[in-house]
Amino acid sequence: MAELFRKNGGRSNALRTGPVVTRPEPRIVLDPEVERRLAGIRFHFPESMAGRLTGVHRSAQPGVSVEFSDHKEYSPGDDIRQLNWKVYARSDKFYVRQFAKDTHAAVCLVLDCSGSMFYRSEAVRVTKAEHAAGLALALCYLFLRQNDSVGLLAVRGSHMTDFVPPRSHASQLVTVQEHLDAAVTGKAASSDHHEGPTSLAEGLEFLVSRRTRRSAVIVLSDLFMELEEFLPYLRYLVAGGSHVWLVQVLDPSELDLHPGKSERTFPFQGAVFFRSAETGHGILMDARLARADYLARFNAYQDDLRERCAEAGIEFSPCNTDTAPSEFILEHLTRRR
After folding, report:
1. Does the residue 69 lie in any domain?
2. Residues with Cβ within 8 Å of residue 182, at least 6 apart in sequence
3. Do 280 and 172 have their domain in common?
4. Are strands 315-320 and 243-250 parallel, antiparallel or unpaired?
5. Based on the domain organization, do 154 and 71 belong to the same domain?
6. CA–CA distances in Å: residue 120 to residues 40, 123, 249
7. Selected residue with higher pLDDT from 194 and 186
8. Domain that holds residue 112
9. Does residue 10 have a pLDDT over 50?
10. Could you tell me if residue 26 is inside a domain?
11. Within a domain: 39
């Protein structure tokens, strides 16, 4: 047993310590390269937010700003200093200037930790769950830097959720990182145990029950489920004024999104036994003969998903697990301009 001695006013105090406990290194950490590349980046949502703090997003309420927004007809109680006399000279009516108010956003990151999310092909280094968690942590860092509140909802299994309420304090990054790491490592430790299909819909239903309005919801999942299991909840959030961003995380062997690398999609050869990571059920098939049918079905699903997201006003972005989080975020912001 090791003993540590500390001098205190001429007396020696013996502090006994137990065996040294080595804590495992966290698997989900913020890469310094992410911090470097995202420093100074601003992530604006197109919808008006309903935050109470100053931020970078347009508020649903008019306020004081240097950015002119609109005119409204004068009514008693309006600030007469904002009267536009040029408009009055043309119309003989009093109008006051309105300015945009900048506010912060409440952002909820929804992480799907179902069994299929823990798949990794030989071509990449991380599972879909690990990649999604790393992307969620990078987004958390970005939003906290611009004074947004960030929360986390990790859907681990049927009737199992881990919820971190949105906060804007800098310590929230550590809190979210710890919960992301627990969600990924906890599931990975029991990857051979099949809990049954995870219901992402239950997590989204939880958000709907919290009357989430005029906020931002970012869902990270492989979306290996029927569209009607989750789309109705996302439509409801959009109808309430929230911005919904659906990030589909895919292994390159499931669907390679990189131009000119289609051969990495469904690269299996010969007789292969495919087993569901969520139910444990499997099927033996000739992979070479099944590839064409797989591609046709998967691409049809993707087309339907993309079309229905566009109709509902849901932002949709597929992402491969070999794309760095910072690269994906920067490319996404570039496409939005």
Report:
1. yes
2. 162
3. yes
4. parallel
5. no
6. 33, 8, 12
7. 186
8. 105-336
9. no
10. no
11. no
